[in-house]
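Open question from group meeting: does this chain pack into something compact, or does most of it stay loose? Before anyone orders reagents, we agreed to write out a predicted structure and look at it together. Recording both the input and the output here so the notebook holds the full record.
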Amino acid sequence: MGVGGWDFDPWRGTFFPPGLPKAKQLEYAGTQLTATEINATYYKLQKPELFAKWAKAVPDGFKFAVKASRFCTNRKVLGEGGEGIERFCAQGFTELGDKLGPILWQFMGTKRFDPGDFGVFLKLLPRTQDGLELQHAVEPRHESFRNPEFVAMARAAGVAIVFADSADYPCIPDLSGGIVYARLQRCIEEEPTGYSGEALDRWALIAKGWSRGESPAGYPYAAEVPPPQARDTYVFFISGAKVRAPLAARALIERL
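Structure tokens returned:
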């Protein structure tokens, strides 16, 4: 359970203690949360020694989700991005070791589902890197992906479909792959914990169900609901009133 990144000025004094040096923010976040998304990798490649430094700053059990490069996902033809995917995966994020979580492949809201092209893209995602098994999650943001063919392709590839709770993008709730990856994007600033207590109670129940492989009721599934299968579950509070995101994550952790 976590947020996106760990360097956001409005978190200083609201989540981070007053006066905490920026160099200590990740270390502090590691004492309060259990995961975070690395956003910097979306914009440019990072150095192996930086990943190793980040890994040392957090306790055992903490996980880093790594956001894939925009140069791999913001393409007209995804299937032509093999070289970029190889370069992204070889940048050194395996220095995170057992703190490496899923790789998040996020697509623009204008990217439509093209079965042929997306099928090629899925085949380009490596299963391992430097001896470590990789877990992949794809986050389509266009309604055309609410399609049983897309769900079947993701399941065949062992890739998770991101569950997005958002006012701007469609929710494709179908379980796929060996993990659940949820991005909750409705924090409001008027709520001290971003979401109301009632809403957090509900998300706690849903997260527990996800971990058992259950598909929550009331969502528009594109394909047949699979039989229950235990899954590692990642829940990130992203966007909305971002200033409240770490407080929402911490409140959900307390409920779990």
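Observations to bring back to the group:
Residues 197-211 form the longest helix (15 residues).
The chain is about 30% helix and 15% strand.
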